Amino acid sequence: MTEQTPAEIEARAADSGAGATAAFRSKLQTEGLEDVTPERVNTLAREVLTAVHDTIRRHKVTYAEYDALKAWLIQVGEDGEWPLFLDVWVEHVVEQVANENRHGTKGSIEGPYYVPDAPGLPADATLPMREDESGTPLLFQGQVTTVGGDPIAGAKVEIWQADALGFYSQYAPGLPEWNLRGTVTADEQGGYRIHTLQPAPYQIPTDGSCGKLIAAAGWHAWRPAHLHLKVSAPGHQLITTQLYFPGDAHNEDDIASAVKPELMLDIVPAESGEGEQTTYNFVLDPA
Ligand code: MBD
Ligand code: FE
């Protein structure tokens, strides 16, 4: 793999936040937006504004701080970083509420970098990757079942992940379109064996508005390494989740608050002798 200068890596990082705005717009075009009733808007907008007012009073927010906020909010939109901001700092609570009654596999946030319709792959598959793709080989295998433990033949396992530098295809230039993305169809026993690579931890782009907030507040910009998944089958609820790697320095302080103990992988040396392997089974709730 060719070496990148820090400036090149920064340039790629800047693109990724904005790309998420374009991707969200195209999702809206295909799926549209459901109506939110005036009653809900009234309740929710009023409560959020009241919380803001309370914060201003409690901390005696100044005009200088108010103007800094205005400037920053304007810039988030210009940078195209609203999806990034919302998915990093808000989505985890929406996910918690949405999935609180499930009995199957725990959910986690989708984040800004999902792309629908990744190439279809058989149950035993290697994710699309470059010939010289760097990183530790990882065999990710398991089975999809119902909450009752019955295998779900032909379940769909969509997977997307960052490469060994922390970049997602279609959100960083220079990567093949579907790099490290795929739609795997499980076998008759609901089984899948996906050959991929260990992803790198992900750093929120430091050069955009989200990065400015992180720097201004003295926070860090990291998510622990993770695999993204959407697992689905007819008659069952689709689950969107993420899986994590033990020992990652940011499992305990994910900037996106999306780690759950149930989503920690058990990584062991690969039986093939090359790299690592892990087994994770998905349990789907009935629709
Ligand atoms: C990611 O890769 C991610 O998963 C989330 C939630 C936010 C930003 C980047
Ligand atoms: Fe991610």
Automatic annotation (TrEMBL):
A molecular function annotated in GO for this UniProt entry is: ferric iron binding
Top-rank taxon of the source lineage equals Bacteria
Enzyme category, top tier: oxidoreductase
Give the enzyme's EC designation: 1.13.11.1
Cross-referenced InterPro entries: 1_2-CTD_multi_dom, Catechol_dOase_N, Cchol_dOase_actb, Intradiol_dOase_C, Intradiol_dOase_core, Intradiol_RC_Dioxygenase
Swiss-Prot/TrEMBL GO biological process terms = catechol-containing compound metabolic process
The Intradiol ring-cleavage dioxygenases domain, residue ranges: 140-168
Q: Which UniProt keywords apply?
A: Dioxygenase, Iron, Metal-binding, Oxidoreductase
Q: Does the keyword Acetylation apply?
A: no
Cofactor(s) required, per the database record: Fe(3+)
Q: Which Pfam family is one of this chain's hits? A: Dioxygenase_N
Q: Which residues form a coiled coil?
A: none
Transmembrane helix as a keyword?
no
What the record says about family reads:
Belongs to the intradiol ring-cleavage dioxygenase family.
Q: What is this protein's record name?
A: Catechol 1,2-dioxygenase
